[in-house]
Every structure is written in structure tokens, then in C-alpha cells.
Amino acid sequence: MSNSKTESGFIFTGRHMLAIMVAFFGVIISVNVLMAYLANSTWSGILAKNTYVASQEFNMKAEEARKWAELGYEGALAVEGSTITYRLKGPAEAIARLSEIKAIFHRPVGELQDFSMPLTRVSDGVFSAQHNLAAGSWIVDLAAIEDGKTIYHQAERIAIPE
To answer: Name one Pfam family in it (predicted).
Structure first.
């Protein structure tokens, strides 16, 4: 028997193992950093107090929004300086009966600066109030309420520059 052995010339060394380990864990760490960045940059900061109840109410709220859209309701919020103006379009007879719009201002995270105020009627479909909003992000819940019943609701996220 002859002891002939074909040699390939490649020898797996500790440096090769180190390169494999660095590449493997580099990919895992890179993916984790990317996922953490995306989670943080896309999170709105809004948390439901009870996620089960919120999920049960979602379809009902979506159906209500479709009905409002079919009726022609559409609102536009504007903040210029200390003047907050809300223009509401919709069925003329319903808009004519509204004397005010209830507005709740809250921060996406935290409750310390949250407040509510009425926007009073300036003309048909135009409601306004004066208030200096602090700089930053706000979520504004606007509700047109008639005889204790919400006839239209809109939530809008706004940013007040510094």
C-alpha cells in the first residue's frame, strides 16, 4: 500500500474560525440594531389602555368613519400662532346646529400637558379658539357633539415648531 495523499493546500486555521464567528455574530447584531432602530423610529407613542377592548372597538369605529365619509364630513385643523381653527364640512343642517367643537390636546407620550377646550363657532363650519401650544408633537381629538351624541370625530397629529 502506498501512502499517497493529495493535498489541497488549504488548512483551516484559528483565523478562519475567528472570521466565521465575527461574520455570524456581526449579521445577528446588525439585524438587531436595524430592528431596534425601525421599532423606535416608527412607534407613534400611543398605547391603548386596554388592548383587548381597543381591538374589539376597531371595526365599530371603522364602520362609523365610513358612514361619516359617506355623509360628506371632512375636517381641517390649522394652528397659526395662538389661533386654533377647525373647518368642518358636511351636511349643512347638521353643521348649522353645532355651537362648538370639543378639542382634546394630548402628547403622544405622557399626560402632563394634556388639556381639553371648546372651539367656538365663528361662522358656518368654522370653529376657533385662542391658546398657545407648546412646541412639539400633539395629537388633537376633535368631536362634533350634538345633544350628547357624537356626529363626527377626527383625530389629527400636528407638530408645533419651536
So the answer is: FixH
